[in-house]
Amino acid sequence: MTALTTKLPSRFLPVLATVVLFALTFGVGSGLYDGFASGQVIANLFIDNAFLIVLAAGMTFVILSGGIDLSVGSVVALSTMVTAAGLKAGWPLPLVIIAVLVIGSTLGLLMGLVIHKFDIQPFIVTLAGMFLARGLCFLISVESVSIKDSTFRDVATAVIELPGGVTITYNVIIALVVVAAALFVLHRTRFGRTVYAVGGNEQSALLMGLKTARTKVGVYVISGFCSALAGLLFSLYMLSGYGLHAVGMELDAIAAVVIGGTLLAGGVGYVLGSLAGVLVLGTIQTLISFQGTLSSWWTKIVIGALLLVFIAVQRGLIRERR
Amino acid sequence: MTESPPPVVEMRGISLAFPGVKALQDVDFQLFPGEVHALMGENGAGKSTLIKTLTGVHTPDSGTVLLAGETVAFTSPGDAQQAGISTVYQEVNLCANLTVAENILLGREPRKLGGIDFKAMRTQAAAVLARIGVHIDPASVLESHPIAVQQLVAIARAIAVDCRVLVLDEPTSSLDAGEVAELFRIMRVLRDEGVAILFVSHFLDQVYEIADRMTVLRNGTLVGEHLTKDLDRRALIAAMIGRELGALEAIEDASERRTASGPVLVRAEGLGRKGAIAPFDLDIRAGEVVGLAGLLGSGRTELARLLFGADKATEGKLLVDGAHLHLRGPRSAIAAGIAFCSEDRKGEGLVADLSIRDNLVLAMQAARGWSRPVSRRVKDQLVEKYLAALDIRPANPDALVRTLSGGNQQKVLLARWLVTEPRLLILDEPTRGIDIGAKAQIQQLVTSLAAEGTAVLFISAELEEVVRIADRIVVLRDRHKIAELDGGSSIDEVVGLIAGEHLSEEVAS
Amino acid sequence: MKNRLLWPLLALAALLVLNLVVTPSFFSLRIQDGHLYGGLVDVLKNGAPTLLIALGMTLVIATRGIDLSVGAVAAIAGAVTCVHIGASGDAGTAFAGMAIALVLCALLGLWNGFLVAGLGIQPIIATLVLMTAGRGIAMLVTEGQIITVNNDPFRQVGAGFLILPISILISLAVLGLVALTTRKTALGMLIEAVGVNPEASRLAGVRAKTIIWTVYVFAAVCAGIAGLMISSNVSAADANNAGLWIEMDAILAVVIGGTSLAGGRYSLTGTLLGALIIQTLTTTVYTIGVAPEVTLVFKAVVVIAVCLVQAPKARAALSFRKVATT
């Protein structure tokens, strides 16, 4: 009976790799371009990607539980649409916010229930959710609806000055609060640990007497809620609602989570990894925009390549463990 | 120790049927506090079903379960756990990605400030581990420990609650001797604390070492309940295996019928696979039926899979017609004329959603490649021939295999390989779970195939059947080949070997 | 078998009747300059790329896989061809461009097959890589521009007529070819065997990996041809929007056609019906005057309905039979 006190280094390896990758890309940027290594560039990473951070936090829950949620991009679009349309119709802002969050969570709840009750693959159910949410956007309006509400605009443009002259928006605060909350829930609550348990081995979790059903549905509610919140942040960022907002954003969210070291098979991963994943994606975008001559499509190719590398590494880790 | 207290668990007249199978028929069972009670029986005897009835996974169709004298009706494993019945399964049913402490306490973890109190959790987990004498870091991740330790952690979880009954369903199948000793030490500690332990194992040595009492099941019925000291191994094995005559007597004794054998077709030299079967030598001659005898877990299936290349051997070599054959997978075995009917008909044998016709020609077609289809005419001929020859019903080639009965499914699987005209046919439990008529037909088929010159490796849990059909019997025990007997040997001889009466010293390695 | 196709057939019939009610002229056909025109022809013409991709997807799904990258592959095919053609107007350049594009697509299919069969990565994830990177590659090829061409032979692929639209003739030809290949050779049976029970197939000696490679290559080539049609129809390559969401439509068509996402038995006829239903649905929404984007809502409803009909658990619940719990 040997006392193995060391934790498996391999389970932290992907996250570590992501952090190193972030440092590296950022280092490369700082070496190549003047003004890259400024506090404001880092702050902008958060400002420009606040919604993605929130999305990735929600997606982390789903992927940790062994599922996937393809509907998040569409729910973001729907949220922007509801926000814009609601404000245009003269609803008070708090009501709009509550409506958006309830709609997102309800969509998540419905998808989770269908997935769990009828044992249909998450992939196809959330695909339907994706169609539904996009379609609902266009039911509200086919055109882009701009947001003219003054309170909303004030919040959107308000900046918070940090020491050193760096400014951030309220979006960043909200995103960081979400990450902190996700950290707490995943690591300090029974629900969070059950998410890991279900992703690790659902059958075992059930035999251990854990509430797997509630957990499996719960992660989609969380993801739906996060998507709706991300949609609110995206509205603040874009100041409009449009059915074609956030097309393909579910892929960015999944990519961020995977690059952040979460196993797609579920059970292993960290919210902070997903945050690092988002920052890596953001840095690559910033790098390419600093570079100037490389076009934006390189972002996609690089993200694809990174995805591949991380999936291959995951594959290797799983094989090694068996 | 067994007479004084009233039973903690009493099951009376339990019956349970699944579609098409009577899993349990009027079974009585009792378990006393402070005893280790072994539940014995071959595959399909109803052991797991009985356990699952006790632990709330299944609800019996009739009969009552009493816990400490009170009737209970559990509807989920959670219910049973609440009532003090904890179960540890063969596979470690824990979450390997969580820490040891979480695996022990998740679901009833100590809390603080709305969150899990990890410090208290580690302390509590350490206390439970200490109770069974296991000293590992509760904060370590479960998968960083070997399976044996994980198994002990599962036991720790089971006893972390107030546990009156501990069910251990084949906990030793993946443990080595030292680890089993450790497990038994813990079992004795718990027994002496007054916990009632229900123990299932296929290893007779272990059962005789640890169990105070045993209950034997066969085909879903209770055969008997005995104190371990009153039941010797022969009697136990005879009770487990039973005797099934009647419809099968039509087949004459194989060893009398054929004495001469053809040339050696397949020879294994020191063939083995780590953790599955120890290196063995084996000759199989054309036209003979070699029987493999041994209890479940003795390495029967593992041996067969090596010969077919379904698993790769880690040592030794295989010769076919005297030439070395490097098996890279089933395809190379098939090319050499070896065929294998898996014991797991549904999982590894048939393609349930395809028709009888497609299943019949699958192996032949796979060998030809996709671009050279078996013509419709040839297919129809083959199908017609084998539907008739094996009496497959319904005789409708378009019927989906999933709709057939077990016996007919088995015949389809057999026919698939007969179509390829194999030189060595490996049959792993071809008669399990099928009705008696189909059983007789399959046995008849084996003898006639051998008469035509096909070599057959016949694996069955039913010794009677093996002894009757085989020209030669290879006996396996604890993943070692321990003996080869002539076909004329008696069941008693084989039982003696399996029970380990004569050869226990030689097997020790 | 017939039962499985009954519901899709009824759905298609219902949609067509609805169209007839809304637009009485929907079924009328007329011939003008040797071209057949009419509502039905439009459905066929617009549905051709989806049908083609759905054919490839059917075989992939039959092996328990999925290919998310087809939309991106279609975009690459269009981009490569249009860039190769450039300002040229002659047939040789057009055919060379298309040939290069299709060979490239086959290579991309090999890549997917390698990830799935070679490395053993889950199909959804493996093809996600190319889905993400593929659009980038397409934009790399077109340098982010929408490349317009003026090449008549190329234009024929997507917009030409041979009485019927050439695109639908191509799709139907591929359908026929696949049906013939899978049913006249043993390919179809082996694909189904691998999809239903991979382990049993391996033990029966089936080359499961080779089959999986084959279906991914086929799916990519189908996507390539569809990409050519899409780009030819507008005589331009739009790396961003060509074939956007077509993978979802294709998967939907396959599922509506009765092929289970769990792999195994597949139906090419079902897929044909599925593709037609999707296209008719789109057309219907358009003709009854709802914004075309709203089609998505209907598609969502169809997906869920079809999945519920297929799911064993849902069926059991609907028929009030006792659900076996484990």
From TrEMBL, chain A:
<keyword id="KW-0812">Transmembrane</keyword>
<feature type="transmembrane region" description="Helical">
    <location>
        <begin position="12"/>
        <end position="33"/>
    </location>
</feature>
<keyword id="KW-0472">Membrane</keyword>
<protein>
    <submittedName>
        <fullName>ABC transporter permease</fullName>
    </submittedName>
</protein>
<feature type="transmembrane region" description="Helical">
    <location>
        <begin position="297"/>
        <end position="318"/>
    </location>
</feature>
<feature type="transmembrane region" description="Helical">
    <location>
        <begin position="93"/>
        <end position="115"/>
    </location>
</feature>
<keyword id="KW-1003">Cell membrane</keyword>
<dbReference type="InterPro" id="IPR001851">
    <property type="entry name" value="ABC_transp_permease"/>
</dbReference>
<feature type="transmembrane region" description="Helical">
    <location>
        <begin position="122"/>
        <end position="142"/>
    </location>
</feature>
<feature type="transmembrane region" description="Helical">
    <location>
        <begin position="162"/>
        <end position="186"/>
    </location>
</feature>
<dbReference type="GO" id="GO:0005886">
    <property type="term" value="C:plasma membrane"/>
</dbReference>
<dbReference type="Pfam" id="PF02653">
    <property type="entry name" value="BPD_transp_2"/>
</dbReference>
<keyword id="KW-1133">Transmembrane helix</keyword>
<feature type="transmembrane region" description="Helical">
    <location>
        <begin position="217"/>
        <end position="238"/>
    </location>
</feature>
<feature type="transmembrane region" description="Helical">
    <location>
        <begin position="45"/>
        <end position="63"/>
    </location>
</feature>
<dbReference type="GO" id="GO:0022857">
    <property type="term" value="F:transmembrane transporter activity"/>
</dbReference>
TrEMBL record, chain B:
<dbReference type="InterPro" id="IPR050107">
    <property type="entry name" value="ABC_carbohydrate_import_ATPase"/>
</dbReference>
<dbReference type="InterPro" id="IPR027417">
    <property type="entry name" value="P-loop_NTPase"/>
</dbReference>
<keyword id="KW-1003">Cell membrane</keyword>
<dbReference type="Pfam" id="PF00005">
    <property type="entry name" value="ABC_tran"/>
</dbReference>
<keyword id="KW-0472">Membrane</keyword>
<keyword id="KW-1278">Translocase</keyword>
<keyword id="KW-0547">Nucleotide-binding</keyword>
<dbReference type="GO" id="GO:0005886">
    <property type="term" value="C:plasma membrane"/>
</dbReference>
<dbReference type="InterPro" id="IPR003439">
    <property type="entry name" value="ABC_transporter-like_ATP-bd"/>
</dbReference>
<keyword id="KW-0677">Repeat</keyword>
<dbReference type="InterPro" id="IPR017871">
    <property type="entry name" value="ABC_transporter-like_CS"/>
</dbReference>
<protein>
    <submittedName>
        <fullName>Sugar ABC transporter ATP-binding protein</fullName>
    </submittedName>
</protein>
<feature type="domain" description="ABC transporter">
    <location>
        <begin position="260"/>
        <end position="503"/>
    </location>
</feature>
<dbReference type="GO" id="GO:0005524">
    <property type="term" value="F:ATP binding"/>
</dbReference>
<keyword id="KW-0813">Transport</keyword>
<dbReference type="GO" id="GO:0016887">
    <property type="term" value="F:ATP hydrolysis activity"/>
</dbReference>
<dbReference type="InterPro" id="IPR003593">
    <property type="entry name" value="AAA+_ATPase"/>
</dbReference>
<keyword id="KW-0067">ATP-binding</keyword>
<feature type="domain" description="ABC transporter">
    <location>
        <begin position="9"/>
        <end position="244"/>
    </location>
</feature>
